[in-house]
């Protein structure tokens, strides 16, 4: 069963494929420039103790973003 949710909803160790990136023009462009583009596989590696920021693994590197920004990125998670 597949499930669409936001990147902020994924738990540590979970992965998803990006389906969309929302946000204001400048923020959206910045996220896309960092490699957060549709059809990219993303894995949540770490979450700060307070829940913000979150560290992601994608395209062979780690990226840390704010949870608020992650809420604007939709992903497709496949449940086993």
Descriptors for this entry?
alpha+beta; 2 helices; globular; SH3 type barrels; 80 residues
Q: Can you offer a commentary on this structure?
A:
16% of the residues lie in helices and 44% in strands. With 80 residues, the chain is α+β, with helices and mostly antiparallel strands. Strands 1-6-2-3-4-5 form a six-stranded antiparallel β-sheet. A hairpin with a 6-residue loop joins strand 3 and strand 4. The radius of gyration is 12 Å and the shape is globular.
CATH topology: SH3 type barrels
Per CATH, which architecture? Roll
Beta-strand residue fraction: 35-45%
H/E series, N to C?
A: EEHEEEHE
Shape: globular
Low-confidence stretches: none
Distance between the termini: 7 Å
**How can the largest sheet be summarized?**
6 strands, antiparallel
Rounded to the nearest angstrom, the radius of gyration is: 12 Å
Sheet with the most strands: spatial strand order: 1-6-2-3-4-5
Number of helices: 2
Write the layout of secondary structure elements.
Layout: E1 2-6, E2 15-21, H1 25-33, E3 41-47, E4 54-58, E5 61-65, H2 67-70, E6 73-78
Antiparallel strand pairs: 1-6, 2-3, 2-6, 3-4, 4-5
What's the short story on this structure?
This protein is α+β, with helices and mostly antiparallel strands. It contains two helices and six strands, in the order E-E-H-E-E-E-H-E.
């Amino acid at each position: 069963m597949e499930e669409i949710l936001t990147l902020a909803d994924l738990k540590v160790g979970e992965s998803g494929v990006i389906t969309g990136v929302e946000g204001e023009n400048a923020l959206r462009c910045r996220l896309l420039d960092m490699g957060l583009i549709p059809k990219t596989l993303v894995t949540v590696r770490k979450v700060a103790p307070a829940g913000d920021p979150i560290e992601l693994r994608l395209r062979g590197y780690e990226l840390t973003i704010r949870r608020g920004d992650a809420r604007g990125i939709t992903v497709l998670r496949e449940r086993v």
